[in-house]
Amino acid sequence: MTIRDVPIEVIQHAKLLLLDTFGVAMACQKMDHANAIKKAVVDMGSSEQCTLWGTDKKVQLADAILYNACLIHGDDYDDTHVASIVHPSASVVSTAMAVGEYVGATGQEILEAIIMGWEVIIRLGLAAKGRFHDAGYHATGIVSPFACVCVASKLMGYSKSVVVNALGICGSQSAAIQEFLNDGTGTKKMHPGWGGHSAIYAIAMAKAGFTGPKEVFEGRYGMWQTHFGVRDGFKEALDDFGKVYHTKDITFKMYPVCHMTHSFIDCIIKLKKENYLIESEVKEIECRIEPRCFHIVCEPQEAKKRPVSEYMMKFSLPYVAAIAFIKERVSPWEIDEKLAASNEVTGMIDRVVCHSDETKSNPGYFPGYVKITTYAGKVYEKTQLTELGTKENPIEFEQVVKKFEDNLSVFYGDDQIKELTNAIRNIDNSKNNSEIISLLKPEWK
């Protein structure tokens, strides 16, 4: 795949996705999880090969991917391909940028590798048909090593034999359990980065002659059979590779919480504003959600009703619904433990009732259904079939740019933000990615 093969509208969307990706990444640079992973990789004392974004520090290639991806995915504010239920950019962009820095690739070569990586990770997610999540896995963490092998190998120029063996090796490295949904711990933040980290080691082993199974996906004991008990759908998902571009269907997240809750946020805010509702008159907020999503954002009920950690709040439909009504927004500032424990919020959460409802699904999307009942007996209902950011419910270009600028405003001045914007938009005309990497370091550092 070369840039000449890619439709112009896909390239334009890709650049906007990159803008969003660097914005959400650098907003996380002072968060606890970022500091922890940075300390871990720096303390390893590895070769100084690739930059930890936002710093002057360099570590070995795989560790740089791990850290930079944890920035992208750290606030759960990064893009999503909803039909495949994966976050494409966290692993793919971090891998392409780090490998690109390592080998001195041009901006065009890096962009080509990113688009190819997006297409691979999306197709693997589509082939799984949501069954990774059903079995308790985080799909992004499961499929990202394979996409990252393709990205890194394209930029490094490795042979088909190396790639095939590296993909086979990744079958024994991809892992991402969703137990964090039960206790709110932060392991999900590292899943995309660990996928890229695993890919680099898989490639290194394959290059040295280590072998991996050729039917790593569809084999008798391959990923599909071992993870959800069937071997169908894999090959079909790759048939139109290079002909159909799913990149254009990657959506931006306008709320830093689980994408499955976004349509509910929109419905609640609209109902409140359209009907001039106030907290004291609301008796119940009923949310109906398809079973696959219900298990993720509504269970276990006690934990979701009284979230005590950042990640439990992000994956709690009751909390998100309550905050949407009270604040009429869900931003990073509403993911706050003190706010979650306040009487106002807990009182509203207790009025949120969630139901698992098979009739409320819309395959390939995350719909929302909300019914608000007042103490006076009035009922207000709203359904949103597609989340914000889809072709049916599009986001304006200016909204993405504003999100980017808002994310960076804490750490960067207007001039630096403008320079970074221009560098990202012109990545395909650059000799390398050094300008973008240098601009990720705040001027005051």
TrEMBL record:
InterPro entries: MmgE/PrpD_sf, MmgE/PrpD_sf_1, MmgE/PrpD_sf_2, MmgE_PrpD, MmgE_PrpD_C, MmgE_PrpD_N. SUPFAM superfamilies: 2-methylcitrate dehydratase PrpD. Signal peptide: none annotated. It comes from the Bacteria. Residues 2-230 form the MmgE/PrpD N-terminal domain. Residues 255-423 form the MmgE/PrpD C-terminal domain. Belongs to the PrpD family. This is MmgE/PrpD family protein. It comes from Fusibacter ferrireducens.
